[in-house]
């Protein structure tokens, strides 16, 4: 009898705990819904609306993503305190793009300094003084990689838009692989038919998934646990079908960039996941293509805290969309 009574108390206690937990979750969801802005605030300082034209020796307004395209390709390079790693990346990038230019194709590179406190802006301006295809967007304060990429995208002129990390970890010539994938997806590419590409929808993701076995052998058990936990959360909560959401080498059509970046909320490391979540919402074709990638020293990611921040962002992305705190306008065209 005593055992039965004890078991009954435990069952009742367990039910009370579940009830309290459910009430706490409901209250938190209500608070989250009430306190969350449904649409992102696209704030931009006046200084961030202009770039210095070295040829004309004057500041000029950046164009808008909502203008018509005027060049084949825009390359957005988010950079935070990258005075050391930026030059090798830009050298490789510009060597490749200048070859395209000699073939009659146009491009621009927009270096977005994300509130850098070192000589990143000075280094980027040195390239802008040498190449009239390079523009520098200096953010007045640090927004995070997602915020830097978004403002670069909103300032671009290309039929297609690529964002590429400033560390140069991905071989830039692999852009050709992404363009081939774009051609396979749409039937044409940004070199042969830029007007058609600009009006179409596609997102092509560079991927390091094929290197997973090699990286597993190099990493500690703790870092492997964090990596697999993050991948599971991405798959379970947000995006399925893409093995590597975080590679900083992605190509978008102009129309897809319009649909995604005016809706994007997350401005830190997990922005790639929300970007792909929005793309899936709009049924934008998303493909993944293997690229050559090399670990470059000087990463800004602090293993434990950065992964923790990204894990929290993933849960909040899922929860805010599920309860309707974040909304997506049905603006996809064509």
UniProtKB/TrEMBL annotation:
EC number per UniProt:
2.4.1.117
Per UniProt, the enzyme's principal EC class comes to transferase
For this UniProt record, give its keywords in alphabetical order, as a comma-separated list: Endoplasmic reticulum, Glycosyltransferase, Membrane, Signal-anchor, Transferase, Transmembrane, Transmembrane helix
Q: Which residues cross the membrane?
A: 13-34
Q: Which GO terms describe its molecular function?
A: dolichyl-phosphate beta-glucosyltransferase activity
Q: Which pathway does it operate in?
A: Protein modification; protein glycosylation
Its GO CC terms are:
endoplasmic reticulum membrane
- Write down the chemical reaction(s) this protein catalyses: a di-trans,poly-cis-dolichyl phosphate + UDP-alpha-D-glucose = a di-trans,poly-cis-dolichyl beta-D-glucosyl phosphate + UDP
Membrane topology for this entry?
A: Single-pass membrane protein
Report domain Glycosyltransferase 2-like positions.
74-181
Signal sequence: where?
A: none
Compartments annotated for it: namely: Endoplasmic reticulum membrane
- Report the sequence similarity comment from the record: Belongs to the glycosyltransferase 2 family.
Q: What is this protein called?
A: Dolichyl-phosphate beta-glucosyltransferase
């Amino acid at each position: 009898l005593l055992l039965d009574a004890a078991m009954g108390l435990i069952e009742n206690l367990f039910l009370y705990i579940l009830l309290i937990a459910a009430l706490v979750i409901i209250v938190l969801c209500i608070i989250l819904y009430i306190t969350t802005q449904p649409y992102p605030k696209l704030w931009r300082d006046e200084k961030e609306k202009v770039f210095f034209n070295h040829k004309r020796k004057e500041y000029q307004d950046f164009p808008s993503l909502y203008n018509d395209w005027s060049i084949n390709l825009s390359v957005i390079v988010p950079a935070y305190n990258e005075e050391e790693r930026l030059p090798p990346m830009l050298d490789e990038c510009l060597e490749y793009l200048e070859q395209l230019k000699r073939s009659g194709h146009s491009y621009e590179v927009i270096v977005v300094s994300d509130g850098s406190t070192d000589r990143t802006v000075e280094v980027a301006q040195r390239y802008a003084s040498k190449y009239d295809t390079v523009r520098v967007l200096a953010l007045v304060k640090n927004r995070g990689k997602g915020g830097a990429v978004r403002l670069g995208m909103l300032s671009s002129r290309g039929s297609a838009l690529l964002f590429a990390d400033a560390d140069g970890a991905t071989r830039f010539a692999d852009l050709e692989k992404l363009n081939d994938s774009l051609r396979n997806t749409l039937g044409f590419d940004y070199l042969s038919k830029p007007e058609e590409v600009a009006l179409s929808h596609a997102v092509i993701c560079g991927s390091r998934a094929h290197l997973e076995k090699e990286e597993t052998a190099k990493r500690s058990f703790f870092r492997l646990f964090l990596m697999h936990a993050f991948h599971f959360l991405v798959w379970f909560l947000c995006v399925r079908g893409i093995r590597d959401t975080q590679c900083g080498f992605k190509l978008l059509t102009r129309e897809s960039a319009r649909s995604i970046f005016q809706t994007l909320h997350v401005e830190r490391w997990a922005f790639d996941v929300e970007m792909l979540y929005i793309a899936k919402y709009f049924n934008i074709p998303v493909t993944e293509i293997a690229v050559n990638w090399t670990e470059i020293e000087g990463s800004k990611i602090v293993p434990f805290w950065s992964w923790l921040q990204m894990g929290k962002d993933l849960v909040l992305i899922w929860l805010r969309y599920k309860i309707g705190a974040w909304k997506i306008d049905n603006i996809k065209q064509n």
